[in-house]
Amino acid sequence: MAETKLPAPKKQRGGHQKLLILDAGAQYAKVIDRKVRELCVESIIKPLDMPAEEIRQGNYTAIIISGGPQSVYGDEAPKYDPKTFELGIPILGICYGMQLVNHLFKGKVEKGGTREDGQFDIELDTTSSLFSGLRRKSTVLLTHGDSVTEVAPGFRSIARSPAGICAAIEDAKRKIYCVQFHPEVDLSLDGIVMLKNYLLNIAGFKGDFTPLCREEEAIKEIREQVGADNKVLVLISGGVDSAVCGALLKKAIGAERIYAIHVDHGFMRMNESKTVVTALKSVGLEIKVLSVEETFLKATTKINGTETPPLEECIRPEWKRKIIGDTFMVVSDQAIKDFKLDVNKVLLAQGTLRPDLIESASNVVSTNAQVIKTHHNDTALVRQLRDAGRIIEPLKDYHKDEVRELGKSLGLPQELVWRHPFPGPGLAIRILCADKPFDISEEEVKKTAEELKTYNKDGIYATLLPTRSVGVQGDARSYKQLCGLSTDKENPDWDMLFEMAKEIPKKVHNVNRVVFVFGKAIKEPSLHTITKTLLNRATCDQLRAADSIVTQELVSNNLVKKVAQLPVILFPCDFGIEGGRGVAIRTFITNDFMTGVPARPGKHLPESVLNTMNAKILKNVKGVSRVCYDLTSKPPATTEWE
Questions:
Q1: Are 346 and 391 in contact (CB under 8 A)?
Q2: Are strands 346-349 and 166-171 parallel, antiparallel or unpaired?
Q3: Of the listed 42, 184, 318, 359, which one is catalytic?
């Protein structure tokens, strides 16, 4: 790097110091922003290629460069302005950000033989200001395939992973610090301390940014966007997000200007529609229920100019989500006609959250983020409506915990505020559809099964299942196979099971999710048969019944607040029983809903509750071969299975 520097930024006049987050395509960019807000620092997210001159004129106190899915030496590496590093502003590079800094300053970054995906205990050099006050060992989240193999001149290594890979570097003189892990997520246990050290101690933030009341800001935005004459049509899905959105709209512009509809698409949980209508009526918002199950099942859409099969025949997860999202829009347009509203004076309101947009790679958040999954409320059609100014999303800058706090302040019932998140497409995305086993090549199946054999120990057997699920590895989406762990032991060794679930996706590259299979041990290295599964009333009723049993057990044992989310999934693996299917229980412990861990039996919930769920599902839900318990953190697996 040349030593020539651009003119120093002018001293800020009044207001709060600002942090610039340069987004290299990370799924966690908004989580960085959220963690920074917790430390009372104002932050702004911009693309990585923001010109250095704009940065200088923006009077930013410091910079964080996010992670991203690309390689610094790849053709698709995001562009950046090298002069950014000549501004004399403190910089923290995270994951890809570290690799970029090391590459730019003439160090080496190479693709290694070992991916590091998941939690690891790394060794810190605590003489570094970044790690001030911490112990030498720290548990962090790593998600990378490329690694720093030679530290750039002027920098020194300040952390190493268990594999001996460089996990952090610094040039304290230039106040440039970089970490290969993600300090912004809950899975990095000391991450908030590291961010505090960087922001307050190294960069010199005062930590005095106290944002205006979130409720007041959202109400102001609603009133400005809706104006004096427009009316609002709001879709209430059944989850807490859309309910809070509806209640917030009512407070902002009054119930008389709101047309609230609840779309019962046939994919709701047991008694879901009745519950949400009653809850919102309690805060003065009347809801019209549209029963349109057949409309959704028969619906198609066009993707890249090609018409999809009807939803009831659709296999591909992304197609299912897009059909459902587009059909929501069609139904809302019909509702506008039924209400005899002027289409030019109606806005469509949605309870879209920031994590939804991040995972959909929406340009509302960033132009660089990779698609992890398409959310029903961020399809191409929704984006067209958004660009046309016809969609209002007052919660688009909120995370789930912030929405709950907002719901409380709006006076919504506690039982609604604390309900577990339920996706707009409902059970449709919790039924994994397939008409044939999901198998990689026969050669790869054999290879993967052989790799899994190394985990057959202490009475536990690892089996490759003919089902795939979505995951997030290295900031990008992965569709990979499912591994089932089973045992004949009456009392499973949960610590060992969770340790295996942590290790298998790191070492076995065709697997991104691991489950424990209740019942007798499965000693075959792989299973190959499934039951054809499509979206219809029978499969929805099957999952609805299983989901109801799990929910009732959670409520009756007062565990709703201990578990942040609990999807129940129906998947086509028959486990050797013709016509049978699997049911998976996916508990999720998280604060930010971008990362998280499954609940540990005996720690977060009693093992007896799980055993009761298993027994009741097998007894009362016809056609279920086995019940499974998801053991996988996010990442490498997502919360939902598709």
A1: no
A2: unpaired
A3: 184
